[in-house]
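---------- Forwarded message ----------

FYI, see the Iron ABC transporter substrate-binding protein record below. Original note from H. follows.
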Amino acid sequence: MRIALAAIGLVGLVLSFSTAAQPADYPAHYQQIIDASRQERSLLVYSNMAAYNWQPVIEAFNRHYPWITVQTLDLGSGEVFERYYSEVGSGARTADLMISGSPEQWIEFVSNRREAVEYVSPELANYPQELASPLPGLYTVSLDPMVLAYNKLLLAENLRPTGLQHLADLGEQEPGVFRGKITTYDVTEAFGYAINWAFVRDRGGEEAWAILSRLLPNVRPERSAGPMLEKITIGEYVAGYFISGIVLFPRLERSGQILGWTYMDEGTPFFMRGMAIPKHSTNVNSAKLMLDFILSKEGQEAFGRGGLTPYRADVDAGEFNTYRSILERIGGESKAIIVGYDEESLRQLDDFQARWESLLGR
């Protein structure tokens, strides 16, 4: 577990912000939230993002609200919820704001346990609601792409896959190169299951299963993107699919031109990274300020610099990708596979995992 701590800064800077005003287009009562946050002083965030993702966000947030010390804990997607439930059960202090990439856990948290504060952000008007707030009190931080990666030193140009069908073809044509040398997320993990389920749903059901039935015999799954990319880099694997772009892209230069990647022919899964204020937050006003800042144009740009994928329409691509710029590159919305919050995925969980694992040969 890694901890990122943003300190308040110089006394003079704090004094210069002592009368910090609300954003101009926010409702008049918003100033009450700002004023109340001064009595809280700190904000504890549980997320599945690293310190480098958070750094530009916290720096920009503290320029507006310098009296709030922000502490972020980098946890696994499921661990975000497990830690919260454990701490609530023991009466310990817990998260003020939660961010995770686990649709299955968010459905349980929001719809079944009713643990999210049903806060309505003034930034919601700047987004399509189905993307920005798919469940009451649940907001989307970013829409991050899943891509296909490969080792350029081990795969000649004619063996570099462009999609899952192509990768399945290559596996059958060149078994000596690809057998046991392909990786992806394990569907026994919530993250991997959500991506695979959305792919099958959006790409023809049995047609998608036909591709997986040819692909999975050559696959060795992993639990997270970091080990996948490390093993592709050293040659233990030659390729991997449904790999998180926000983990891959910062590694490209560091890999020494070893890693190659592409968006997939069949379409690009975009993961909705969820965010909510839990009911047991003790610094709820500070949490509202951070949630609204993340959804603001400035906050989305800051997360873009931190490696995530902004999806707000008025954020332009430049030093980072945006959801809109990726859509333009892959051929529009018909090529986007949104990994969202469908309760049908929970009902199909056991059967889907069993079928996937049988194709894997477990």
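H. also flagged this: The chain has 17 helices and ten strands.
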